[in-house]
């Protein structure tokens, strides 16, 4: 799998270089030169606001607000950094998020929250693309070809997200765990616990899930504002209404392309190519579209650097304290039951111990 990811990453990088060569490095550099340093700083701040809202959505993916918000934000930044930097590795950033939270909640609670948060995130992306499609049909700002592409992307997202949700609510995770147990493969107990946690959350905490979905959608709209600022910085802003509609379409397609090209590390190559095609279809110029993609990559790199700093500081603390990554007390709902023999043994120890009188 690691080899495949390396090949895909290399192919995407080659495609990106070929696209830059075809469009002309001079035209791309000219577009980038229009963005002032303070505008780029503003984009980084706005991206941070979107991240904070996204983390708030993740917080509602827990059944209880036990984790400090600052710790959730640190876990999100560290995990996202690993997600990008481990494009050629075999481990992503999601386990890192659970590891950062190991002192606050056990893995039996943090892992389901990550799945639930990812579910609300991709559902929000579907809603954003549906809103963008309505905007396109109402304003006619794009041609038939791009509108058709948006329809197909929406169908792919609906099928993908629908299947993802169905796996969680239909008990597929638990059934898979039973199959693993029957085949003699370990880990089936954890899958049973995960299945129970997910289904209980959807059944009993569905209001918190809806709040998480609303917050994730709000984070996506912060992305629309970010796109709008980049358009004005590039000298492409026209009337506010028209630019807002264009920004909504661009951001929705950005998320949709990332969704369907998840198998390419960082969507490097396909995302830039699709963005150039979208800008050309909107009459904004393909080279400007590639410059736009590079600006978004650059502001992401700033936050990736912050995540790396957080992760390194936590690893240093762990080393100094002799911490164990498997640390964490299981929750009462997921703690394995002891057999009667072990309970009798525990009672006998309590009676014999002089410190337990």
- Biggest sheet statistics: none
**How many helix segments?**
14
What's the overall geometry? globular
How many structural domains does the protein architecture include?
Answer: 1
Determine the strand fraction and express it as a percent band.
under 5%
User: What are the low-pLDDT stretches, counting only 5+ consecutive residues below 50?
Assistant: 324-357
The mean pLDDT is 83
Number of strands: 0
Helix percentage: over 70%
Rg on CA atoms, Å: 24 Å
- The CA-CA distance between the termini, in Å, is 57 Å
Query: Pairing-aware structural class of the strands and helices?
Result: mainly alpha
Write down the secondary-structure element order.
Answer: HHHHHHHHHHHHHH
Give a description of the structure:
By secondary structure, this protein is mainly α. It has one domain (2-6, 33-325). The chain is built from 14 helices and no strands. It has helices at residues 2-23, 25-32, 37-59, 69-85, 94-100, 107-139, 144-169, 172-182, 188-204, 206-233, 240-260, 270-281, 286-321, 340-352. Helix 4 packs across helix 13, helix 8 (172-182) runs antiparallel to helix 9 (188-204) and helix 10 (206-233) packs across helix 11 (240-260). The chain is globular. The termini are far apart. Residues 324-357 have low confidence and may be disordered.
């Amino acid at each position: 799998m690691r080899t495949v990811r390396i090949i895909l990453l290399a192919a995407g990088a080659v495609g990106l270089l070929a696209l830059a060569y075809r469009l002309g490095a001079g035209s791309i550099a000219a577009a980038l030169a229009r963005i002032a340093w303070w505008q780029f700083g503003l984009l980084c701040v706005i991206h941070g606001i979107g991240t904070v809202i996204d983390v708030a959505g993740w917080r509602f993916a827990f059944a209880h607000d036990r984790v400090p918000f600052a710790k959730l934000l640190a876990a999100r930044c560290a995990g996202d950094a690993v997600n990008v930097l481990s494009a050629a590795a075999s481990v992503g950033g999601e386990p890192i998020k659970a590891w950062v939270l190991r002192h606050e909640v056990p893995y039996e609670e943090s892992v389901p929250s990550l799945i639930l948060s990812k579910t609300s995130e991709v559902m929000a992306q579907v809603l954003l693309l549906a809103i963008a499609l309505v905007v396109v049909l109402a304003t006619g700002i794009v041609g038939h070809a791009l509108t058709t592409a948006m329809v197909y992307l929406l169908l792919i997202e609906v099928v993908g997200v629908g299947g993802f949700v169905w796996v969680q609510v239909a008990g597929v995770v638990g059934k898979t765990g039973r199959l693993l147990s029957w085949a003699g493969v370990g880990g089936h107990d954890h899958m049973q616990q995960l299945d129970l946690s997910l289904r209980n959350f959807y059944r009993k905490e569905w209001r918190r899930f809806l709040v998480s979905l609303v917050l994730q959608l709000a984070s996506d709209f912060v992305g629309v504002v970010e796109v709008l600022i980049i358009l004005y910085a590039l000298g492409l802003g026209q009337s506010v209404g028209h630019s807002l509609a264009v920004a909504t379409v661009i951001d929705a397609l950005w998320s949709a392309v990332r969704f369907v090209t998840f198998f390419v590390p960082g969507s490097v190559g396909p995302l830039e190519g699709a963005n150039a095609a979208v800008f050309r279809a909107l009459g904004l110029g393909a080279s400007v579209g590639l410059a736009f993609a590079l600006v978004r990559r650059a502001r992401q790199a700033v936050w990736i650097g912050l995540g790396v700093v957080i992760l390194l500081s936590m690893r240093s603390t762990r080393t100094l304290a002799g911490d164990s990554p498997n640390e964490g007390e299981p929750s009462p709902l997921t703690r394995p039951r002891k057999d009667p023999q072990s309970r009798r043994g525990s009672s006998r120890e309590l009676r014999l111990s002089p410190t337990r009188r």
